[in-house]
Amino acid sequence: MALTIRSVRAVEILDSRARPTLSVSLEIAGGAVVRAGVPAGTSTGAREAVELRDGDPRRYGGQGVLRAVAAINGEIDAALAGRSFISLAAFDDALIALDGTPDKSRLGANSLVGVSIAAARGFAAATGTALWQAFVGRLDFPRFPVPHFNILSGGVQALTALDFQECMIAPVGAPTIAEAVRAGAEIYAALRSLLHGRGLVAALGDEGGFAPELRQPEAALELLVDAIAAAGYHPGLEGVAIAVDAAATRFFAAGTYTIAGEPHSSDDLIARYSEMVGRFPIRLIEDGLADTDWAGWERLTAALGDRVELAGDDLFCTNPSTIALAVDRGIANAVLIKPNQIGTVSETLHAMRICRDAGYRRFVAHRSGETPDAFIADLAVGTGTGRLKAGAPARGERVAKYDRLLQIAAGDAGCGLTYGLR
Ligand code: PGA
Ligand code: ZN
């Protein structure tokens, strides 16, 4: 069914980090208005599509998005208003052509992704389906993903000395999405009590995970295992498993990884990961090595690729060409999927297709800067990725994604969907 655009509008709002972002609204024929809130990263990859920010130091330290608002209300609205599109792909092609740059820097990846997500909602509204249903048939059979809750944070998300960015729990063995969300919340509460009991006063990281003063990643993983058990769950690959986002690009310089002050070569770090995988129920390591260390990634994949999912985030930036290159070299076996890293929903689906055809897992993800927009929950369900990360099961902008999964499960069409990893 064709979608006719009446107008495109944007306003500058705040994201969860107190930084400006965009709220986009699209009025479609018939008068319905669909909206999108634009996420933004802190530990952004070097190959990401480029956001348009004002750079005016007198407002929000240069982070304002009034130029992006002007681009949407001006040029983008003028180009799209009154036009009809037969598909989201055709709509996104028009956006990409209008921008005209390979990295979306002219109109801004933040502008484009907001308009694209709103349009995806517009197509679903025009056909009278739930958003997740609009993705059915594009990739894998739909299913509820295993939520990966970031409950213990370090790196740039926290002010502590812990170098690993995210320590996550994944209730792989839960029977339903509702039970998985319950496990996440109960383990989060158990971790809070454990930290309190051990005198580890903790701040919260940007994604709602606790940020206790720890230095060694193994100490963080021990706490996770203890919290899982304290909440009455089984820490294990079949029960509640662990995942880490090392975000290693940040602690890599001049060929050396520095963890808690100790230098590691790529091979030292690979050996340390192997030990961790033997000791803890780790099912996935994200950005285990830096985005420039492709030779290291080859050896990491050879060493651990048949035991754990090795996911690239900064490594790939949801970029179809970069993923294709890595597939050729046998680097990693899973890919973080973040629509704003590439700039449109259609290109995100294209990246997911390349992954699927190569046998790489897809791990749909939020950003550290979020709004209550729960688009990624629908995306993960409709494309059947089996994996989603949206931060801690606390803070409104994170919970919105998990709550959306619960709402889909409670809806008529959602009841029949199964839960779990693919
Ligand atoms: P970002 O971090 O959203 O700040 O890039 C999240 C991640 O690294 O997965
Ligand atoms: Zn990451």
List the helices and strands and how they pair.
Blueprint: E1 3-14, E2 20-28, E3 33-37, H1 66-80, E4 84-85, H2 88-99, H3 109-127, E5 146-153, E6 166-170, H4 177-197, E7 202-204, E8 210-212, H5 217-230, E9 241-245, E10 252-253, E11 256-259, E12 262-264, H6 266-279, E13 282-286, H7 294-304, E14 309-312, H8 320-329, E15 334-337, H9 339-342, H10 345-358, E16 361-365, H11 375-383, E17 387-389, H12 396-410
Parallel strand pairs: 5-17, 9-13, 13-14, 14-15, 15-16, 16-17
Antiparallel strand pairs: 1-2, 1-4, 2-3, 5-6, 6-9, 7-8, 10-11, 11-12
Helix pairs in contact: 2-3, 4-5, 6-7, 8-10, 11-12
The protein binds 2-phosphoglycolic acid and zinc ion.
Would you kindly provide a brief summary of this structure?
This protein has 12 helices and 17 strands. The protein is α/β, with parallel strands linked by helices.
